[in-house]
Amino acid sequence: MKSRITTAAIGAVAIAALAGCSSAGGGAPAGEEGAFEPSDVRMTVPFSAGGGSDASGRAIASGLEAATGTTITVENREGGSGAVGYSHLFAQEGNGSQLLAAETTLLSLPLTTDVDYDHTSFTPIMKLGDDYTLVVVPADSPFQTCTDVVDAAGGEGVVAAVSGAISLDEIVFTLIEQDQGVEFDRVPFESGSEVIAGLLGGTVQVGSLNPGEVLGQLESGDLRALCSLSEERYEYEQIADVPTAIEEGIDVSFAQWRGFIAPGGISDEARQYWIDAAEQYVASEEYTTYIEENLMQPNAVYGDEFVEYLAQNSADLEAALAP
């Protein structure tokens, strides 16, 4: 069983932003006494451009802009498997105009890495939905099933790509190792797009990617999906024929959630402002399009429900990663 992962300490990365005043439209509670009015809103993506987290952050920012009339600037702050971006938000205590496109790394980083925060250090706003992964290989790979991959990992070895040293990819490969009694050789990348490049370039043999990240390469035939790490097969037509790992005797399924958070210590008005905006986004065609184009499950929750979800998901993740 693998030991917990450590990374180099992340240096100070942020300067606290000053909250100013500007008008906000689209149903925002502007004009009321004590109402929150965002200024210079930033959406941090803690990974590089081109991957699933980047797509999620930009979709959320666009949806919130439409709901509020407020401009939201997306900033990629990659590094440390997401720790640089989360550290930046942690330094923005009390600033309701700072947001971050969050996913399972919010929970796995504090469990496996020496950072100064955990999920309770932030203000959860919305879980957008759930995103399982596919085990994929290059088109000319000798592997035809996930069972083939496991057998090779127990023999001559398999080089697996992970987008972040403690990402969802790391988690699912660890769970496969625990379930099957094998071990993968890992090569970490900073995003799903880099994993795809590594697969196509022959740097790695197998990868775990969200369907939305890799659908283009699957449709072009450059990559093949061997199995999905989900409880049931996808209903989306493009990948409905891909078997689950469970069907192949590998008892592993784990979803990555996606959503967004704000810094800790923001006002109740700021928290409610973003929850209201998130609810408007989820009711829009833009949200439905994002979910369907990225082959996700639309399980949105907000505020207190999101807090409860994170607590339970963190406990489940800690149990899964325990040495």
TrEMBL record:
* Gene3D superfamilies assigned: Bordetella uptake gene, domain 1, Periplasmic binding protein-like II
The UniProt entry, under CDD domains, shows: PBP2_Bug_TTT (cd07012)
Q: Does the record's keyword annotation contain Lipoprotein?
A: no
Q: Which InterPro entries match?
A: BUG, Bug_dom1
Extent of the signal sequence: 1-24
User: Is Signal among the key words of this record?
Assistant: yes
Report keywords, A-Z.
Signal
Q: Name one Pfam family in it.
A: TctC
**Into which family does the record put it?**
Belongs to the UPF0065 (bug) family.
Question: What is this protein called in UniProt?
Answer: Tricarboxylic transport membrane protein
- Organism equals Agrococcus baldri
